[in-house]
What we know:
This protein is mostly helical. The chain has one domain. The protein is built from four helices and no strands. It has helices at 4-27, 37-54, 61-85, 91-118. Helix 1 (4-27) runs antiparallel to helix 2 (37-54), helix 1 runs antiparallel to helix 4 (91-118) and helix 3 (61-85) packs antiparallel against helix 4 (91-118). The longest helix has 28 residues, at 91-118. The radius of gyration is 15 Å and the shape is elongated. The N and C termini lie close together (12 Å).
Amino acid sequence: MSTRKDKAKDIIHQATITAATVAAGAGLLTAAGGADTPALIAIHTKMIYDLGKLFDISVTEGMVTTILGLGAGAMVGLTGAKWVASWLPIAGGAICGGISALHTESFGWTAYKYFKENCSCLLSE
């Protein structure tokens, strides 16, 4: 039987793979820094809703904004790093994908922790 944490791992890893794929594709477009940002925000938003559902929480727009705000500062810096990496032929795509994968994985576990620690409706693991 899967635990809540196991299910969260599946949700987060699915979002991580999707984000890495999108960012790698965008990274192949030279100087397209930030081209993947709208897609990454959509991926992160879906991940937040899916994690909320895992905790039987009806996620509101305000909750999404709060949780996305936790990773906004990092996203600005990472977008700059991906823009620089996108100037490297072929390798730039891989670097951009890796950066987005690491960010999404970390962001997903931050969202998981947010729901686990800040919501009173939680059950034990």
